[in-house]
Amino acid sequence: MQKGILFFALLIGSFLGHSQELGRRASWQAQVSWPDNQTPGAEIQSIEPGSPLSKSGLKTGDRIIQVNDRKILNGEDWSHATYSIREGESTSIHIKRGADWLLKEVKLNPLEKESHEGLSTYYESIVSDYGIRQRTIITTPNPNQKLPAIFLIQGLSCSTIEKYSGRSNNWVKMIETLVEQSGMVVMRVDKPGVGDSEGDCGCTDFKTELNGYETALKNLKTKEYVDTTKIVVYGASMGSALAPWIANRHNLAGVISDGTFFKTWFEHMLEIERRIRQMSGDDESTIVKKMNEAYIPLYYGMMIQKKSYEVVIEAYPAIKDYNYHGPEHMYGRPMSYYQQLQDFDLAGEWEKVKVPVRILYGSNDWIMSEFDNHMIMKVLDRAGHEDHELHIYPGLDHWNTIHETPDDSFNGKPGKWDPELPKLVINWIQEMVE
User: Fold this and answer.
1) Residue 187 DSSP SS3
2) How many helices and strands (H and E) does the chain possess?
3) pLDDT in tens, 359-407
4) Is the terminal CB of the chain with fewer CB neighbours within 10 Å at N or C?
């Protein structure tokens, strides 16, 4: 009975989603920082003159403790609050100013949408099979001509795929270059709870996210200005591991995999924990101790036995001393996301790929294993695949940035942007759709 009610609710939500427009997220028109890890709230560093926050009487030094019903305890809370505010809607902001508590009701301005000279940019939406409306952004140099298309799948984090004013990290530069210099249609879709999309990314599981990508791709294929025989999937980080599945399932023209992994998430996390401990300066005996006492029990309990952090930590108290994840989330995503990912046949999908494959791996990528990339090449060779290539990009880290060493990337040192990087990706895609 409950399943029937849930299905009916999702069905109704889906119909409603098709008839309603997504609200545009609002802009704080302010800069904030985190005073320390022990103090809740985001401290206002600057406010744009004449903005709604400024007119409401907020000042630099004020701490935003709560936004609507969301308490701001960390960056994850702030990100969720930022994505959830909507232009023109009354937003309740709880402020701590010295010893005083203030409550402000503010209607914020919309965030400016991205635009590209010489391109048509469409802000649209899809409704997934889970009844969640998600933002899509489609760009094309000519809406009156059928063109090849790039379907972009982003990484793990709850960050938007939108390029807006003031956002200029190297991943955004990669997106911007693909959009502006490929000469093709490019589609992006924001995850639930990210950008303008409905939902909560921190509660979204793997299956729900994957369905959003599928729904968006099906929508892309309905566009009159898209040559549906020439769609290439470009996946970055987590998206790179999903790209073969998308290509196999939807008969795409090619796979670009950027910063990928091949093994199960359990294996991947054990490898990355060892690398993190090495780069953090632990000696090898200490690393063995931590792996045996904490990381192997943690990820085995979580991924294989499908237990919560709370249950695993209760059985292995030593994990508390080493675990840097929250009690409910890992990298901002829920336990259910990783438990479903653990059961997803990533390696098997690579074995089934028939279309051209290009894999990009940075020599200073400490997140992913170079060996995984070579494993993919061997699997494709063994399967008789005829058109695949692995390119090891000198100095590149996992975030499209050039560093001298992996440790420089790990320690957050400034790196460089290489404009030749997106050109390589564009050349690959053009070869695939010729």
Assistant:
1) strand
2) 16, 16
3) 999 999 999 999 999 999 999 999 999 999 999 999 999 999 999 999 9
4) N
**Residue in this structure with the two tokens 């058109």, named with its chain if needed:** 387
Instruction: Give the angle subtended at the CA of 252 by the CAs of 186 and 249, to the nearest 5°.
Output: 120
Q: What is the three-class DSSP state of 93?
A: strand
pLDDT grade for 309, boundaries at 50, 70 and 90: confident
State pLDDT tens for residues 315-356: 888 888 887 777 777 888 999 999 999 999 999 999 999 999
What gap in Å lies between CA 220 and CA 227, rounded to an integer? Answer: 10
Least confident of 33-47, 144-158, 168-182, 239-253: 33-47
Total length of the chain: 434
> Among 156, 130, 126, 155, which Cα is nearest to 138's?
126
- DSSP H helical segments within 182-293, as ranges? 206-220, 238-250, 265-279, 284-290
As a whole number, mean pLDDT of residues 171-196 equals: 97
Measured CA distances, 199 to 7, 277, 333 (Å): 17, 35, 13
Residue 384, both tokens: 């008789």
Select from 211, 244, 80, 186 the least CA-distant residue to 134: 211
Task: Tell me if residue 173 falls in helix, strand or coil.
Answer: helix
Cβ(164)–Cβ(112) below 8 Å: yes
Q: Strand pairing partners for 293?
A: none
Roughly what angle, to the nearest 10 degrees, separates helices 420-433 and 170-181?
40
Average pLDDT score, the chain:
92
DSSP letters spanning 381-431: HHTT--SEEEEEETTB-TTS-B-SSHHHHHTT---B--THHHHHHHHHHHH
Closest Cα partner for 376 from 389, 394, 362?
A: 389
pTM of the model: 0.91
Question: Residue 91 pairs with which residues in a beta bridge?
Answer: 106
How many Å apart are CA 119 and CA 209, to the nearest integer?
28
Cα dist. 71→60, 99, 374 in Å?
A: 20, 18, 45
User: Are 317 and 310 spatial neighbours (Cβ–Cβ below 8 Å)?
Assistant: no
- Tens of pLDDT, residues 67-77: 999 999 888 88
Q: Greater confidence, 326 or 416?
A: 416
Q: How far is CA 268 from the centre of its chain?
A: 18
Report whether 255 contacts 356 (CB < 8 A): yes
Q: How far apart are CA 357 and CA 175, in angstroms?
A: 20
User: CA end-to-end span of the chain, whole Å?
Assistant: 52
Neighbours of 82 (CB within 10 A): 18
3-state SS class at 11: helix
